Amino acid sequence: ILLINVIGVVASICGLHYILNNDNNRSKYGVPVIVCYICCLPIWAMTQTFYTDAMSLCFSVVIIALAKKMFTCQNKILTVLLCIIMGILLALGMGIKVTILIPLIAASIVYIIIKDCSMNKKTIGCFCCILLSFGIAQFSFDTWANSFEITQASKTTEDPIITWIGLGLKEDGSFHANLDYINTVHDFSTKAEKEEYCKDYIRENFRYFYDLEHIVAKIRCTYASGHLGSAEFSYIAKYKDNILWQLFSPWGRFYWRSSQIGFCYLHSLFSICFIGNIITVYRYIKDKKHSKTLMLFDLAMLGYFLFLLIWEANNRQLYNMLPILIGAAILNGKQIVECIEFLRNIIIRRKAN
User: Fold this and answer.
1) Are 4 and 42 in contact (CB under 8 A)?
2) Distance (Å, whole) CA 143 – CA 71
3) What Å distances lie between residue 231 and 203, 263, 264, CA to CA?
4) Which of 109, 107, 110, 103 is closest to 300 using CA atoms?
5) What digits encode the pLDDT tens for the residues 269-292?
6) Is the pLDDT of residue 112 over 80?
């Protein structure tokens, strides 16, 4: 389990590094990416966790990196192999955590609509190959999963997807603030009954989707923590002097200090992105210029934000967007540095005159 997640973290670092760098300057962002990962405390805690959020960390950036390689690859065999791997990873990633689709949708918007890619034979062929690989992989995973009795039983007893939309509708949108709702859902024995109840519940409380007090409380619940839910997996340690337990368990010696550091770190990245977005808008209005890679990351960030406004409020939901957040912060930070240098040169010239 630990090996799988370590490979996932390393793969997400490599994928993000490849996306950020141009072919002419491969090592430009290597150190910033690694430093950002090292300084992100939740990664140290969540890598030990065999759960969907930790397991899905790498899928989005790895698929986007493979797509970037695919479009520049001249070797037909390698191109087909990349398409097959992308299809398999897409099926596997969606089975683990469907939110991996948010950055992929953002990438599609940037590289198909905004970039105005012509649908040449290679693009169409790659798209068909990815779909075919995805379909075969999806069928294979479903067949394997359906060989277990619990999977077959879940088709008639599981919670429908809209359960988590209803869960995020009242109070701060968290699980603990909506226990009455979720307990009522679990009182029903079939998926159909649960779905009907959830639909009625959402219709009755639809006004909360645009209730400002609820929205503010939900955003606070989702974003006002630097642990990204890692405490939920750190309650028990084999030894109480385990450093991860001391850092991330609510009973650990350094829990509140690590909470402060984690919060400051994450919101520093968010602040860099916010300032960088202002510069992006200014540059586009002034010069009609924009970075397609930066736009990809910013659109993905916006997608996560909008998704979490309608979903259950849970700080842990931010974990698998960390590669996107780090990528956005690095590129926006580069813009801020360039802007400061530009203003500095203007001041120097004026003093010289």
Assistant:
1) no
2) 32
3) 34, 14, 17
4) 103
5) 999 999 999 998 888 888 777 788
6) no
Helices (H), the chain: 2-20, 30-39, 41-46, 52-55, 59-72, 76-96, 101-108, 121-145, 149-157, 163-167, 179-187, 191-204, 212-223, 243-248, 255-287, 292-310, 322-352
Nearest Cα neighbor of 165 from 191, 199, 192 is 199
Distance from C-alpha of 33 to C-alpha of 20, rounded to nearest angstrom: 9
pTM of the model: 0.90
Say if CB 296 and CB 261 are below 8 A apart: no
What value does the CA radius of gyration of the chain take, rounded to a whole number of Å?
22
Supply 132's token pair.
Answer: 């075919």
Q: How many angstroms separate the CA atoms of 37 and 269, rounded?
A: 12
The Cα–Cα gap between 167 and 178 comes to 6
How many beta carbons lie within 10 A of that of residue 319, not counting itself?
Answer: 26
Nearest to 19 by CA among 277, 290, 324: 324
The pLDDT value recorded for residue 164 is 93
Calculate the CA 312 to chain-centre distance.
15
Tell me if 97 sits within 8 A of 53, measured CB to CB.
Answer: yes
Confidence category of residue 23, pLDDT binned at 50, 70, 90: low
The token pair that represents 15 in the structure block: 């994928």
Identify the CA nearest to 97 among candidates 45, 30, 51, 152.
Answer: 51
pLDDT of residue 27: 62
Q: Decide if 244 contacts 45 (C-beta within 8 A).
A: yes
Task: Count other C-beta atoms under 10 Å from residue 165's C-beta.
Answer: 18
Confidence label for 115 from pLDDT (cuts 50, 70 and 90):
low
Q: What's the pLDDT at 135?
A: 94
Per residue in 188-209, pLDDT tens?
A: 989 999 999 999 999 999 998 9
Torsion of CA 272, 275, 58, 318, to 10 degrees: 90
